[in-house]
Write the structure tokens for this entry.
Amino acid sequence: MSSLEQLREVLGVPPGAVCGSDFGAVEGSLGVGLPPDVKGMCYLYGDTLISDFIFVLGPEFIAEQSLWVSELVREGHPVIAKAVLPDAGGMLHWGHSVDGDKFFLEHRGGSHWTVSAFRRDWADWYESDETLIDWLIGDFTGRVAQEWMPEWPAAHWFEAGR
């Protein structure tokens, strides 16, 4: 079973995959090719709020939100000290929480990208060695980020939008 299938098993049926959306335009505006697993996850759960806590960016909002966060960093964000795409060598901003946490993927070479986050309530920077899908599975099953993520419900629900 692939990681994406495992994520679907944990979260449940996606709210409405956006398979018709074009990631080519997103990649062009960000100036980077995104890993297939990231695009797959964004097609299934992107542009959706999951269980009233994590909003996963997808083809509709990911470039716009990444540009906004990259401007915050250029203006001197006190904790996010690393560049954000579309800035050269930047991280991919892939989502946020209702608490104001910002989630990123850092390119570690080749096709390897790992999850990092600005934790707003903690006013610090979090780094993991996990890929996006593995981190999400770990989060939703309670294996990772236990100290700052909510206790997740047995069944998840979804809300489309920002």
Observations:
- The chain has five helices and seven strands.
